[in-house]
Every structure is written in C-alpha cells, then in structure tokens.
C-alpha cells in the first residue's frame, strides 16, 4: 500500500542518515530505520508508527532536524513518538541506556512498538555479527558498553519491552537475545 507520508519520512531518513554507518558491519545507517519500518508494517502498524520508526533517530543524529521541525513536517503524533525515543547524546552511554530502560513503562503503545522494533533490529544485527565473528574482543570492540554492560543492558531491555509489546515482538526479542547469549555461552 502506498503512503505519501511514509514515503516523505523515508526520504528524510535517507537524507538525514546519509553520512552515518552502523556499528559492527558498517552498513549505511538508514538500513536500521528501514528494517524497523518494514517489520512494523508487516505487523499491521499504522502510518504514524511506521513514520516514527523511520524518523526515530533523526532528531538526535541529524544537524538539520529537531523535534519541532519533525512536528511541522510530519505532525505532532509522529513527533511525539520520536520524542519518546530520543536520547540526549550529551549524556554518557550508561545514563542514556538507564534512562531509556526506566522510560519503557511510560511509553505510549506506538512508542513501545517502535522501541521494540529498534531493539529487535539492533539485537538481530549483533547476533549476526557475533555468529560470524564469534565471541571475541574484536567482535565487541565497536560497542560503547563492551560485552558485559551491553549484555546486561539488552537483558533488562528485552524483559521490560516484553511486558509492553505484542507477543510476536516479545517472542522475537527473547529468541534473538537467546541467539546472542548462545554465542557467548550464556543463557537467558
């Protein structure tokens, strides 16, 4: 189904993330929000949720966009979901991740769906990365939290989101985290 609003959000995401690359595999960053949007669309998410998935990192990562600009371009509903998920990059990794985790119980339904898709894609990318490289120091080097803090953070986030999202996403989150832990010789 064609949606002009989703197409505009995709165009902004492509432009805003053009200089950015993914950690671990160096893919163009825009692959991440596109994957999230596709997943949410497959699960029947509405247009606002799909747009928010495409734009979820634009305000924090792109110099040309902020939340008021997203509200003007895409409406308050989209900007509100993006605002729920926007991190303050001036904060340390630990503070940003703790704040995001503490915020999960307060996310809107749309915010919880987008955050779940965000974490699922990040976990899927990490699982593929570790399955190809193994549980080595080099495999964990690109990640700010290192192995132990990253695994601890992912365990906590998957538990929190599993209580807030639909069962399909919750199962996918747990299964994908299980893949990562299996490579590391750990269990859920």
Automatic annotation (TrEMBL):
Q: Which domain of life is it from?
A: Bacteria
This chain is encoded by the gene named relA
- Annotated keywords: Hydrolase
Task: Kindly give the SMART domains that the UniProt entry links to this protein.
Answer: HDc (SM00471)
Hydrolase among keywords: yes
- Gene3D superfamilies recorded for this chain? Hypothetical protein af1432
Q: Which InterPro entries match?
A: HD/PDEase_dom, MESH1
Which one of the record's GO molecular function terms can you name? Answer: guanosine-3',5'-bis(diphosphate) 3'-diphosphatase activity
Domain HD/PDEase positions? 25-132
Q: What species was this sequence derived from?
A: Rohdeia mirabilis
This protein's name = Bifunctional (P)ppGpp synthase/hydrolase relA
